[in-house]
Amino acid sequence: MHQLLQALHQKLAALRQGPEGLVGADKPISYRTKPPASIHRELLGVCSDPYTLAQQLTHVELERLRHIGPEEFVQAFVNKDPLASTKPCFSDKTSNLEAYVKWFNRLCYLVATEICMPAKKKQRAQVIEFFIDVARECFNIGNFNSLMAIISGMNMSPVSRLKKTWAKVRTAKFFILEHQMDPTGNFCNYRTALRGAVHRSLTAHSSREKIVIPFFSLLIKDIYFLNEGCANRLPNGHVNFEKFLELAKQVGEFITWKQVECPFEQDASITHYLYTAPIFSEDGLYLASYESESPENQTEKERWKALRSSILGKT
Predict the structure, then answer these.
(1) Which of 32, 73, 164, 231 is the most exposed place for a label (fewest CB within 10 A)?
(2) 143 Cβ contact list (under 8 Å, min separation 6)
(3) 221 and 232: one domain?
(4) 284 and 149 in one domain?
(5) What is the pLDDT of residue 16?
(6) Spatial distance between the Cα atoms of 93 and 7, rounded to a whole number of angstroms
(7) How far apart are CA 92 and CA 180, in angstroms?
(8) Cβ-count burial of 134 within 10 angstroms (0-12 exposed, 13-18 middle, 19+ buried)?
């Protein structure tokens, strides 16, 4: 009994540490163009190899996935009182799941921050091309969550409006990746790629080939709509076993994917940067974007002026 309690205590302690990795790290900040040098280094100064960064992102993803248990899906999508509300019930019992969603959002903003940070468009174009290569390697590994976060970060308005910067980027590879993650047809292209990764995992000859990290927000959406869209009981009053079998299948696949051991050696300096590097708030991103490439219309000019006044105290 003592050994069981000790093992349980260690397991619970490990689970509690999961979401705490992002405490304080996912709070955006607003600076003019870059944070003080004492707390910020550019990502390319920490890791200049896109393959290495993709591997470290995969390491982070698998580490964070490992903390999410199947019971969190139940807590998130099963109502306490089926007559009281149709909204999912979130609580402290889903903290690991919600922390993983926060990690996705942080990665989006980190990508956008790193692109908007440099003062020269040549450097910004270099960062964009670097992230394109990182995203492509994430796709090859089977890390679709990081892939989607990177694409989302590059598609944020403060980044996409940098036309002079994008003109210097070789965008063919980016458009291919965008096509793979296109939401058209309920993410038809992504689902095809995911099935390919799952098949590779089932027939894998190496630990690297076993990796399947789904686009998590879409997985949550699929499970939510399956739970909400199908009745628990059939018209004759019998339990709708088909629904629960499908729910079990989807959650069961997730459990299999999250238990894969990461084949890549962790680089503590890179993962520390990914967790702790300061990120711009949305207003901070827009201000950095306008400082890099001047506003093109009256609406942008007015927003730039308001941001300079509120963030920098300038008129």
Answers:
(1) 231
(2) 54, 57, 58, 61, 211, 213
(3) yes
(4) no
(5) 56
(6) 20
(7) 35
(8) buried
- For 265-290, what is each residue's pLDDT tens digit? 999 999 999 999 999 999 999 999 99
Determine the distance from the C-alpha atom of residue 80 to the mean position of all C-alpha atoms in its chain, rounded to a whole number: 29
Q: How many CA atoms lie within 13 A of 113 on its CB side?
A: 27
179: number of Cβ within 10 Å: 11
Going by C-beta distance under 8 Å and a sequence separation of 6 or more, which residues neighbour residue 134?
Answer: 50, 53, 54, 57, 150
Orientation angle between helical segments 95-116 and 2-20, nearest 10 degrees: 30
Residues in the chain: 315
Across the range 124-132, mean pLDDT stands at 96
CA-to-CA distance for 227 and 184, rounded, in angstroms? Answer: 23
* Residue ranges making up the domain that contains 48: 43-79+88-278
d(CA 94, CA 144): 22
CB atoms within 10 A of CB 3: 7
126 and 260: one domain?
A: yes
Q: Which two tokens stand for residue 47?
A: 């890791």
Same domain, 178 and 306: no
Report the domain count for the chain. 2
- φ, ψ of residue 130 to 5 degrees: the values are -60, -45
**Is residue 33 in a domain?**
no
As given in the structure block, the two tokens for residue 106 are 């942080």
* Residue range 147-186, pLDDT digits in tens: 999 999 999 999 999 999 999 999 999 999 999 999 999 9
Residues 193 and 59 in one domain: yes
Closest CA to 248 of 8, 41, 74: 74
How far, in Å, CA of 257 to CA of 169, rounded?
35
What 3-state class would DSSP assign to 233?
A: strand
Token pair, residue 92, equals 């402290």
